[in-house]
Amino acid sequence: MSDDPAIELAGSVRRLIDATIRTLADDATIRAARQQIDVLTEQLTTKALAGPAGIHHDGRISHVAGNVIIGRRNAIAPPLTMHHRDDGDVETDFTLGAAYEGPPGHVHGGVCALILDHVLGAAVHQPGRPAVTGTLTLRYRRPTPLGVALHAEARIRETQGSKIFVDGFIAHGGEVTVEADGIFLFPRR
Amino acid sequence: MSDDPAIELAGSVRRLIDATIRTLADDATIRAARQQIDVLTEQLTTKALAGPAGIHHDGRISHVAGNVIIGRRNAIAPPLTMHHRDDGDVETDFTLGAAYEGPPGHVHGGVCALILDHVLGAAVHQPGRPAVTGTLTLRYRRPTPLGVALHAEARIRETQGSKIFVDGFIAHGGEVTVEADGIFLFPRR
Questions:
Q1: Which of these, A23, A188, A32, A49, lies nearest to B47 by C-alpha position?
Q2: N or C, which end of chain B is more exposed by having fewer CB within 10 Å?
Q3: Nearest CA-CA distance, residue B94 and chain A, Å
Q4: Of the candidates A38, A105, A135, which has its C-beta nearest B137's C-beta?
């Protein structure tokens, strides 16, 4: 999918999201930018998928292109890249900017929950067989700062019948900021 | 803050995010859009806050303008509007489009966690005294669909010393899709 030019477009839209929050440009500049963006949106949607990429994807567009965490066409997604280690654990390194803010200067606790839900799920997924979250518990140990290198990882602890017990965390500079454990399930086909 | 033109700009950027996921325009159109967006981003950031709005906000920009859930300058935020009822409960009605996708056609479970963290926290917050999440537990009852009217609400169940016990849910068509309960705390000043 690397030849999909919308992936680079999404990268530019990510920078635009950040600029929209931080801009101190004069009103005329902001209004002119808005008008130009509306024109571009109309041009881009003259021919477009009828709905979410997960169900309307075509040959050029990956079915996960719109995913809110890993979707490379989705400017909301940081996007995260999951690394599956040989031991089955999953890890990812990332940085979150101004657009992921909750408490001033810090990552929204709910964004940490969003990321951990995805990372724990990724430790369970099997090719062509995604798992779903049954329950997820988050313990917030300390604030997670914006604009710094963050690390998340997850591993399967135990399997009991159809229930898969997983845990993981987000860390910054070697200190855990949020811990998570969850029970994941494979839906009946 | 309604006279802040960047709020309307953020609305246009939200539609652009959706268009970037769904576009089937030819490569030349997509590449040209990207170039124009890069120019706009440069214009908007010639004069800009040095970092997140929460700590760098000025007179025109609300300190929550960049919040990832309610921030009206933040194109990642749906944005949600919290309604504080007379009985102290908090509720919000919203619809999530293609950009919030996890399982095909459905809201990412982690986005439900993000929203519930915020809604439960809103039930605890006091003016000028935000609460922080201690622990949060989510129970996923059924998939949450994209593109339909959703409702979330939360209430305080009990207070024990510095711990505030809160619960809430997301529902669609009267059926609960995700339940949450959490323990919130007021940080020492």
A1: A23
A2: C
A3: 17
A4: A135
Alpha-carbon gap, residue A25 to B153, rounded angstroms: 37
pTM of the full structure = 0.95
Token pair listed for A107 = 């990552």
Compute chain A's Rg from CA coordinates. Answer: 19
CB contact A2 to B (< 8 Å): no
List, for residues A32-64, the tens digit of each pLDDT value: 999 999 999 999 999 999 999 998 888 788 889
Sign of CA dihedral A22, A152, B137, A139: negative
Degrees to nearest 5, angle at CA A138 with A109 and B108: 70
Under CATH, which number does the domain B81-185 receive?
3.10.129.10
E strand map for A101-147: 132-140
Query: B113 and A115: CB-CB below 8 Å?
Result: no
Interface with chain B: mutation pick from A20, A132, A135, highest number of B CBs within 10 Å: A20
Class of domain A80-185: alpha beta
Residue ranges covered by each domain of chain A: 1-73, 80-185
